[in-house]
Amino acid sequence: MTPRMLKVAAAQIGAVNRDADKKETVQRMVKLLEEARSKGVQLVVFPETTFTTFFPRFLFEDPAELEKYFEQGDDITTNQDVKPLFDLSRSSKIDMYVGYAERTDDGRGFNTCIYYSGQKGRILSKYRKIHLPGTKEPFADPEAINQLEKRYFEPGNLGFKAFRAPDLIPGVAKKGDIPAEAKTIGQGDPILGMMICNDRRWPEAWRMYGLQGVELIMVGYNTPWNAKHLFGFRKPMTDEQAEAEAYYHHKLVMEANSYMNACYSISAARAGYDDGKFDLISGSAIVSPNGYTIAQAKTIEDELVTADIGLDDCRQGKETTFDFDRHRRTEAYSLITSQTGVVEPELLAAEVP
Ligand code: CDT
């Protein structure tokens, strides 16, 4: 059997200011894609809303100003400003995950990412962010960092749909090569899944992909570290502690969920200080199915983080500890889909017999 090896990369993008020229930002992405090509990378993951600053931190009163941050249309790959990226992906035959703010043909707003197959020269899959964090209305405190995703986007309506990426690995099994009744774990074209930023903190999202045999999850993100209104105030923290905690939680969820679903993950940050002051963690990383970070960004700037991964390494977990077929107990999990918020047990009486 062909060993299912891939060279992959997270393409971290540093600061992008509010008034940045989209064409220049796309040129930074092109430069990283060229570096990926020179290193023989087959799949590159770019961050969430990569083409612009992370605009949901601002309240826009003027719809025309807001619209500058959205890509127009259901298929953005021929939009003038961003086309050079897709052209290079196609000519280099490098596949890409790219996040952007989507304004659909019928005027709806989503926080979206696409998987563009450089091999096939077209969009293979689209995902729209399901777990939108933050608020609809800005915080009363004028000093607060807002995250108005619930104002600008609808929750994603495409579900968590895993897909196979054709031609990324030559020589793998295809339909008909294996008897229909045989188990195909660890064979065929790679099984991929996409999430966006806050989704990575939700085990339900990972398990939805885990149940489709996912081998590699891709996540782009914009994570502020000094955003006390968003993360809460219960424990007083220094700036250094707040920053360390944001990095810790990012690494924790990427490693734990990769392990619990026996899959690789690639996370790509929009990092640095937008407009010289709005902080975003870096920490772009590639994590193994055993939950180890095997490559990690060293800067808060534009940076390509690469690793060689063997998808067959997913089999160990999928066939043992996390063999869902043998070990999951769905009869005990009904609350997960029947209830949204927390319902606590009643308070105890003063004297418990
Ligand atoms: N972009 C995005 O989803 N950011 C959020 C910030 C935290 S909101 C509490 C994240 O999960 O990283």
Automatic annotation (TrEMBL):
Keywords: Hydrolase. Pfam families: CN_hydrolase. Residues 6-311 form the CN hydrolase domain. This is Carbon-nitrogen hydrolase. The keyword Hydrolase applies. InterPro entries: Aliph_Amidase/BUP, C-N_Hydrolase, C-N_Hydrolase_sf. The keyword Hydrolase applies. GO terms for molecular function: hydrolase activity, acting on carbon-nitrogen (but not peptide) bonds, in linear amides.
